[in-house]
Amino acid sequence: MKAWLQRWRSRRRLTCEDVNRFLAxxxxxxxxxxxxxxxxxxxxxxxxxxxYLDQYRKTIELARQAxxxxxxxxxxxxxxxxxxxxxxxxxxxxxx
Length: 96
Ligand SMILES: [Zn+2]
What we know:
By secondary structure, the chain is mostly helical. The protein contains 5 helices and no strands.
């Protein structure tokens, strides 16, 4: 088990960083019930992560529409998400 996952399980609370990690699994419906509940609880209290999730969904949606193909261009999604991650999770003082 990954160290961060172990830490999270002992803590039973999600940080913004955790939400970032679980996002893809969440949208795939791949989280277990407990993790999903914790994920959604964090989202309710965290505007930053709500905004991130919204942007994530919109990015995928827009890429699909623009390309008019079943799969959005992975490079476009990765580029946009990297930008968002940087803004939301790496650049201080976002929560200052
Ligand atoms: Zn958050």
